[in-house]
Write a structure and sequence with these properties.
alpha/beta, four-stranded mixed β-sheet, two-stranded antiparallel ribbon, 66% helix, 7% strand
Length: 450
């Protein structure tokens, strides 16, 4: 990013700041995230320590939503004609980066945002997020902060009772995100504290108790399916299990795990059962069939949407000029759907004897593998898990002596916390704890010798 010289708002001393003025989703898929996170155009004054956002003209472009927004900070005190002279080159960059067939009328009528917050609100509004939704989300965050700052369990009960209206699915989703983030950062203490608060909310709120019941219902159904599978799961037995599920959430979860079994023959058998049923049972079976048809239809549409997006991404990569740079831009988008798209494209290219396309697909796969390779620390932990005994694990520690540091132990601790939060097997948790103790002892002995 280019650097500019500006004056510190607090001490008025000159300071250098990196700035980004153009946020174009057409050329940078992370542009929206950068702008919304408010992490760009932030500078720190070396003289007084002030840290804050730098006031610079901005242009935001999202071609999919046909959105072109401009913002010129009023505190710069620039006349309108001069503002257009500064904004114009940025808009020209947007237009130039688009193919001729994608240059539409909205590009010549940019929407002027009078404040930075208006700019953010307009971007979110285009995503279907209203100001009311943002305010409601902020109330949930304030509620969580109040719970965290209330150490007494009885006092927390009162806080929960007073804010029970905020305890909805979104609140528990925020908790889930916070817990996952703490685990990823190796902050086991915070993860445990947030998990305990989440548990209290689950047990003390109506929505929480409903979620617990739905989760338990889904788990019971999955367990019944696993038990039935040992002797050979039949369509009749699967129908019985699905018929016992009351909540739509639990039914949706179980259907997503058994979608392949809900085929044409399954629904044909269900229809035959409806036709033979007495009137008392018929309405319940018809309702079940309608729910299953809707869930499977929605599930299939979602799968199709993901598959189409994966194919579109693969084709974009195949036509990229700088392949490695383009592959790196989309590292977070490579999932099982993309892997399937690669396999299908490879098979089709192989059948068509298209050597050039085959070579490029192989290059894409190699670049992804290079960037997605686990860190050496994770690889070492996996080798230690696979080691047959303590002597073999100790030999691995000796071989990788330089890696056995406090940071390695912290990474291992984070993996243990994550495994616990995902209810991994007792055997895996035991071996991970054993490895942690052995690595801790080895690291302490190494420090004592030093």
């Amino acid at each position: 990013m280019p650097k500019i010289q500006t004056n510190c708002p607090r001490c008025h001393q000159p300071m250098l700041a990196e700035v980004q003025q153009l946020f174009d989703m057409n050329t940078d898929p992370t542009a929206k995230q950068k702008l919304l996170s408010r992490t760009t155009n932030v500078s720190r004054c070396q003289a007084c320590g002030y840290e804050g956002m730098i006031s610079v003209p901005l242009v935001y472009h999202d071609p999919e939503k046909e959105l072109l927004l401009t913002y010129f900070p009023p505190e710069l005190g620039v006349a309108v004609n001069d503002q257009e002279k500064q904004i114009g080159p940025l808009i020209n960059q947007v237009v130039s980066a688009l193919p001729a067939e994608k240059r539409k009328g909205y590009l010549f009528q940019p929407q002027v945002m009078l404040t930075y917050q208006t700019l953010i609100d307009r971007i979110l509004e285009a995503d279907g997020i209203t100001k009311e939704m943002l305010e409601a989300q902020q109330k949930r965050i304030n509620f969580i902060q109040k719970l965290i700052s209330t150490p007494d369990a009885e006092a927390r009960k009162q806080v929960i009772a007073e804010n029970s209206a905020l305890a909805d699915g979104n609140l528990f989703a925020i908790f889930s995100t916070l817990i996952e983030s703490s685990i990823m950062q190796g902050d086991e203490k915070s993860a445990q504290m947030l998990s305990a608060l989440n548990k209290e909310l689950m047990e003390q709120t109506e929505v929480g108790r409903e979620l617990l019941a739905q989760n338990q219902e889904a788990q019971n159904a999955i367990k019944a399916i696993q038990e039935a599978s040992k002797a050979g799961l039949t369509r009749e037995r699967l129908l019985e299990i699905l018929g016992e599920i009351k909540s739509l959430s639990a039914l949706t979860t179980v259907v997503s795990l058994t979608r392949n079994a809900l085929d044409y023959q399954f629904f044909q058998s269900l229809t035959e059962k409806i036709d033979k049923s007495a009137d008392a049972d018929k309405s319940a079976l018809v309702e079940l069939r309608d729910r299953l048809l809707k869930i499977t239809r929605d599930y299939d549409l979602e799968i199709k949407k993901h598959a189409e997006a994966a194919n579109k991404l693969l084709e974009a990569l195949l036509s990229a000029e700088n392949l490695e740079e383009e592959v790196q831009k989309h590292l977070e988008e490579y999932d099982e759907f993309f892997s399937q798209a690669v396999r299908d494209a490879f098979a089709q290219a192989n059948q068509a004897n298209d050597s050039a396309r085959l070579e490029k697909i192989q290059k894409i796969t190699a670049i992804i593998e290079k960037f997605s390779a686990p860190p050496p620390e994770i690889e070492l932990i996996q080798h230690m898990i696979d080691a047959p005994d303590e002597a073999a694990r100790h030999e691995l520690l000796v071989q990788h002596d330089g890696m056995i540091t406090d940071e390695f132990l912290q990474a291992l601790n984070s993996i243990i916390a994550e495994a616990q939060s995902h209810n991994e097997s007792k055997e895996l948790l035991e071996i991970l704890n054993t490895i942690y103790k052995e690595a801790l002892r080895y690291n302490m002995e190494k420090k004592m010798k030093a």
